[in-house]
Specification:
Elements: H1 2-20, E1 23-26, H2 28-34, H3 36-73, H4 79-104, H5 109-135, E2 140-143, H6 160-166
Parallel strand pairs: 1-2
């Protein structure tokens, strides 16, 4: 009996606690795509990525050329010469792998550059979200652009435009989302 009363007590007060919580959601993809500095940062990141990819491709072509030359001249080479060329190719392959890791690996140049360019923009959005949450007394803010699956969203709880307004990018009459 006592356990039953305790359970009912927690259910009543627990439900009231949940009912009192205010929440909303935003679409960070939409917000970021409205920010000119984000588009500029993305363009810079894409240019750097393409340049680094080109370098990797050039290094790969050189290695392929070395393999082709070795195969073409293999019958004319001594065992020691074959071994030297094979070792040179293996060394170039190792250099390529190291370069790829240095540029595209975790903590690599690409990662660091992306973080350098995008983090200040994200911080700006998070600050705007924080202000919107405080101004609207929201306890929870979801991001429908993230991993969270939202099966239904009531537009009354969409605070994307408020965050855009906070960033100076919003038009309350513009509800068309890309």
């Amino acid at each position: 009996m006592r356990i039953c009363l305790i359970t009912i007590f927690f259910l009543i007060f627990g439900l009231n606690f949940v009912k009192a919580q205010r929440f909303g959601y935003i679409d960070t993809d939409f917000i970021l795509n409205k920010m000119p500095e984000y588009k500029k940062a993305q363009d810079e990141i894409n240019q750097l990525s393409q340049a680094w990819e080109k370098e990797v491709q050039e290094m790969s072509k050189k290695i392929e050329g070395m393999y082709s030359a070795l195969q073409a001249e293999e019958v004319l080479l001594t065992e020691e010469m074959k071994k030297e060329r094979t070792e040179a190719i293996q060394k170039k392959e190792a250099e390529l792998k190291e370069y790829q890791k240095k540029v595209f690996g975790f903590g690599g140049l690409f990662f660091l550059k992306k973080q350098e360019l995008i983090k200040p923009i994200q911080d700006k959005v998070w600050d705007a979200v924080d202000k919107v949450c405080k101004e609207n007394s929201l306890a929870i803010m979801f991001d429908k652009a993230g991993e969270l699956v939202m099966i239904y969203t009531d537009p009354r709880y969409d605070y994307t435009d408020f965050v855009l307004d906070q960033l100076g990018l919003g038009d309350p009459n513009d509800k068309i989302k890309n």
